[in-house]
Amino acid sequence: MFNLKIIIASTRPGRKGPAIGSWIYDLAKKNSAFEVTILDLAIINLPFFDEPHHPRLKKYQHEHTKNWSILIDNADAFIIVTPEYNYGYPATIKNALDFLYNEWNYKPVGFVSYGGIAGGTRSVQMLKQVVTCQKMMPIPESVNLPFFTKYLNEQEGFVPEEGIIESAGLMLAELAKWAAALKTMRKS
Amino acid sequence: MFNLKIIIASTRPGRKGPAIGSWIYDLAKKNSAFEVTILDLAIINLPFFDEPHHPRLKKYQHEHTKNWSILIDNADAFIIVTPEYNYGYPATIKNALDFLYNEWNYKPVGFVSYGGIAGGTRSVQMLKQVVTCQKMMPIPESVNLPFFTKYLNEQEGFVPEEGIIESAGLMLAELAKWAAALKTMRKS
After folding, report:
1. Which residues from A are below 8 Å from B133, CB to CB?
2. pTM for this one?
3. Are strands A77-82 and A34-40 parallel, antiparallel or unpaired?
4. Which pLDDT does position A96 carry in this prediction?
């Protein structure tokens, strides 16, 4: 069983990330390959990167960094749930990534993105460049939600159509496959 | 032992790719983890992509595609040796990548890039986005050569300083590590 962390990138008042995050969390929980946790960056509440040393050295000065390090270190795989701001990723997720280094290494990451016509894909495309520098594999199987508000309602949260649920299933299956292979690299 | 293919991306008359490719080939051959082959795109001489079906289906109509498929299919890892044209990758390497799909899956790729002040890194950064779509892991350990012509001479070819040789050693070690892990994914 793999430890899967779902990271909710948006933190602004009125954000839709938690509704979409809860949906992918429920789906992932049904997959027996995973033990699943949500990491909501609004709750984790990291400041802008404030460590004096490169994270590669793990000489963390702050409690918030040490806590974040523990949460990421014991993960085997990630799903980043992200919107797109100005055709790019929000600062919150870049900042959360930049705080650590070794803790991310040799782990796969999938993406659930949401936005207008591009479905948040430009945000994801930029994130892919960042995560490979941290030795994460950004898997191509993803969930991208153009005009996502049509699937949101106040009573039930995020209720997508069947094709989207299928994409999520493919992403989860591939994440498990990568998680198994890359776990062997962390032991060696 | 892993089958490592070194792909020389540039094909223009007067190109410097073969000199740099020969250098990394000689270094890789000394690494007992690898059996090494050079794939020079100028010799392979693919036309612009001309298959009617998506490569995922492997319904290849042309001999050049079938031959290229065999060369890539039996590789365990790649090094792409590439210049930077207009801050991006040359069409030749994008075209060679686009011809196939399954043959690239679950394999790591390292980069040796050369150029002016940026050392070809912008070309590599764009390639990273492409290769993850084909389920390749673009490893961050790379060789990037700014103002590379200073290391070229007519008698000895490409003769870099010690730090560059160390970077290449790191890249080869990581490529072997990824090749071992990802090989298990192709069997399953």
Report:
1. 140
2. 0.96
3. unpaired
4. 98
The two tokens of residue B49 are 């992509």
Record the tokens describing residue A154, joined without a space. Answer: 């106040």
Cβ-nearest to B129 among A125, A133, A185: A125
Question: B44 exposed, middle or buried (CB, 10 Å; 0-12, 13-18, 19+)?
Answer: middle
Q: In angstroms, rounded to a whole number, what is the distance separating the alpha carbons of residues A77 and A107?
A: 5
Are the beta carbons of A128 and B125 separated by less than 8 Å? no
User: What does the pLDDT read at residue A156?
Assistant: 84
Three-class SS state of A88: strand
Q: For position A78, what pLDDT does the model report?
A: 98
Cβ distance A135 to B139 less than 8 Å, yes or no, reads yes
**Over 80: is that where the pLDDT of B74 sits?**
yes
CB contact under 8 A, B132 and A125: no
Residue-number span of the structural domain to which B23 is assigned: 2-187
Tell me which amino acid residue A173 is. A
- pLDDT digit string (tens) for A120-166? 999 999 999 999 999 999 999 999 999 999 999 988 899 999 999 99
Number of H helices, E strands in chain B: 6, 8
Number of folded domains that form chain B? 1
Q: What is the CATH number of the domain that holds A99?
A: 3.40.50.360
Chain B nearest-CA distance from A52, in A, is 23
* pLDDT above 60: residue B144: yes
pLDDT at B155: 84
pLDDT at A188 (0 to 100): 55
For chain A, percent helix, then strand, then coil, each to nearest 5? Answer: 45, 20, 30
Alpha-carbon distance of B23 to B11, in angstroms, equals: 17
Q: Could you read off the pLDDT of A32-55 as tens digits, one per residue?
A: 999 999 999 999 999 999 999 999
Amino acid at A170: L
- SS3 assignment, position A95: helix
How far is residue A111's CA from residue A146's CA, in Å, rounded to a whole number? Answer: 14
